[in-house]
Give the backbone structure.
Amino acid sequence: MELSGTLILGGLIVVLVWLVGLKSRRRWSLPPGPTALPIVGNLLVLDKKAPFKTLLEWSKIYGPVMTVYMGLNRVVVLVGYDTVKEALVDQADDFTGRGPIAFMVRASRGYGLGISNGERWSQLRRFTLTTLRDFGMGRKGMEEWIQEVSSQLIDRIQSTKAKPFDPTFFLSCSVSNVICCMVFGERFSYDDDQFLQLLQITADIIKFSSSPWGQLYNVFPGLMEWLPGRHHKVFADIEKTRSFITKKIQAHRETLDPSSPRDYIDCFFNRINQEKDNPTTEFHEDNLVSTVLDLFLAGTETTSSTIRYALSVMVKYPKIQGKTGGPRLGLSTRSTSWTRMATSRKTLRSFHSLPVNKHIFCFTR
Ligand code: HEM
């Protein structure tokens, strides 16, 4: 009797919350959208593997700007090139902020470039872009690293003796090692256990964050903390990666020569020292550890899956492979550089490595 009374009361509260939600939708004149259920919102009817497919279908009914509920989170969905451009380009100032993604916030402990907004984002982004450029992004020094790493990659591919193989792991090793050069100032051997563990963990984190279980964490983080599941293993792995990064940072601190910075971490330390009397500085170790983590998470999977996709295009269109100068990457060979540029742009256009923006869902057909 007592239990059924509690259930009825609970049900009434849920319905009440739902009705208040409906009323506030009208009051704030939110864009139209499908009717949402209490607590779960529209989650149950979203295509779990490709949510954009459901969203595209809904946009035919509700238009290019819709309100959708991911659990209790209200989300504005923009569909189509013109709508996305109007928001993110024409009204860029109003759309620069991004909402918190629970998984990323937990992984980065609330610090770093990847999740921040406002002054923190602006300072870390400016610093990171300038520093990565100074260390060769798009410059001659990096060209040499990439050539060396890609030559090792080709040797490893050739060692498979034309038997079928999955290039995923080889590609992640190569891409990650270029990031290691910029960030840690060192490259790792492909037999180095710590490096292999870092790669495995990075791949697991990315896989988890885009899985239905990872999405569920983003929608109900508080609840998921109490439930058993893979997310606990992923968070434990993230802690291992953070401690790997922290050890590297510690070693940098002990060997720092401020007049001759070796890599991203040294430059960050120089900036910490320059701003040590500034009480509102964003240059401190919490932001350093999380930004280094961001660089690995954001850089490895995106770049290696883009190259993987490009490889599959090359397999399908051998003529294009010929025009790009084949697998040996001489980045400064001018005769093939236009074709390479066009091919890589086409690759980036035709496949979505990060189709869903952080703060609004944006789709262009
Ligand atoms: C083909 C390769 C790449 C693709 C397609 C790609 C794509 C993207 C996209 C779409 C975003 C914006 C995400 C959002 O706002 O929601 C982003 C952000 C970011 N990417 Fe990449 N990326 C690539 C390579 C890299 C590399 C190599 C690095 C690091 C070395 C990197 C580091 C970052 C960082 C730190 C952010 C966050 C920037 C910020 O918040 O201002 N990415 N990337």
Notes: Residues 113-114, 125, 179, 294-295, 298-299, 302-303, 306, 353-354, 357-358 surround protoporphyrin IX containing FE (CB under 6 Å). The longest helix spans residues 285-316. DSSP finds 15 helices and three strands in the chain.
